[in-house]
Amino acid sequence: MITVNHLSKTYRNPDGTSLTVLKDINCEINAGEVISIIGPSGTGKSTFLRALNLLDPPTGGEILYKGENILAKGYPVHKLRQKMGMVFQSFNLFEHMTVLENIMYAPVRILKKSKEEAREEALSLLRKVGLSERADAYPSMLSGGQKQRVAIARCLAMNPEVILFDEPTSALDPTMVGEVLSVMRQLARDGMTMLIVTHEMKFARDVSTRIFFMNGGYIHEDGTPQQIFENPKRSATKEFTQRIRRVVFEVGDHFDLPGMFTTMTRFCIKNNIPQFCERVEKLGELMVTDIMAAYRPMTVRINYKEIADEASLDFMVEGLDHSPLEAASKEKIQPLCREIIEEPTTRGFRVKLLL
């Protein structure tokens, strides 16, 4: 469906300097594929999407859509955008229109559909994204997740062949991310061709047929989710996909324990793992104020491996040469965690609780 050859994008600054964001992009995208584009910030992921439908025209290379070079002079760009829809991270809804009017607007104005036909199709799309009861609401009355679902319905109203998603969940409260990803999963099951710039690694692994890992203005690695996340060929890919998110606390005799528990809860919500919040707080309090209270100072860490969907709590005591846990202590902990790992380190001894 889409072939990209030697695509580049350079921005010229007023002072005469330049910045090349896309350096040499080459790829082929087939109908029905779901391709997630991942990588560090500032590597050209969003620019690549915007170049594909010419919102940000490239400065070099070519893009073939169904065999036609869309960069050729005279190519009907407005028709391309009807077939290659885009969903933005900031929703871009018309605030003075209702949800229903937002979805009907383009089919009536661009596709010349009757208002009755457009209304019927818009209501059908709202049912598809779970928002039929909000048809007469205005965007200001909606949550972020609801706005993004309306934006997806609005895009679908144009009957696109390809949808480009530019970090569709990055502007959302973590508690609303799941509802948007659920709609996107359904689109993938329906066979929609999609390119998705995302930082949701678990979603990318689960829903994609291919992954583009971008780094330094290139597609650094292109492969299946299994290859990219389990057996990457490039060291930069491995470093990115296997990253661990964590927060570290140094707990002494006069430490702010309520503050630590609040930070842990925020960590769980930010990383979209609210199911661990209650256990994290209970285990943290039990370990720090009871079971290991005599072993302060200690280092406490909450960790989350997104790809493995694994959260853990670490309790590290320097200079200790044995486990601080007794049989009775383990009986208190075991109902709250999946596994208890006791291990010596070069600095002391660590207790790791897998949630």
Secondary structure topology:
Layout: E1 2-12, E2 18-29, E3 34-38, H1 45-52, E4 60-65, E5 68-69, H2 77-83, E6 84-87, H3 99-109, H4 115-128, H5 144-156, E7 162-166, H6 177-189, E8 193-197, H7 201-207, E9 210-215, E10 218-223, H8 225-230, H9 235-241, E11 245-251, H10 257-270, H11 277-291, E12 298-305, E13 310-318, H12 327-333, E14 339-344, E15 348-354
Helix pairs in contact: 3-4, 3-5, 4-5, 5-6, 10-11
Sum up the structure in keywords.
355 residues, alpha/beta, 6-stranded mixed beta sheet, 15 strands, globular
Quick summary:
This protein has 355 residues and is of the alpha/beta class. It has helices at residues 45-52, 77-83, 99-109, 115-128, 144-156, 177-189, 201-207, 225-230, 235-241, 257-270, 277-291, 327-333; strands spanning 2-12, 18-29, 34-38, 60-65, 68-69, 84-87, 162-166, 193-197, 210-215, 218-223, 245-251, 298-305, 310-318, 339-344, 348-354. The two termini are 44 Å apart.
Walk me through the structure:
- By secondary structure, this protein is α/β, with parallel strands linked by helices.
- It has twelve helices and 15 strands.
- The strands form three sheets. Strands 6-7-8-3-9-10 form a six-stranded mixed sheet, sandwiched between helices. A five-stranded antiparallel sheet has the order 11-12-13-15-14, covered by helices on one side. Strands 2-1-4-5 form a four-stranded antiparallel sheet, with helices on one face.
- Helix 5 runs parallel beside helix 6 and helix 10 (257-270) runs antiparallel to helix 11.
- The longest helix is centred in the last third of the chain and has 15 residues, at 277-291.
- The radius of gyration is 25 Å and the shape is globular.
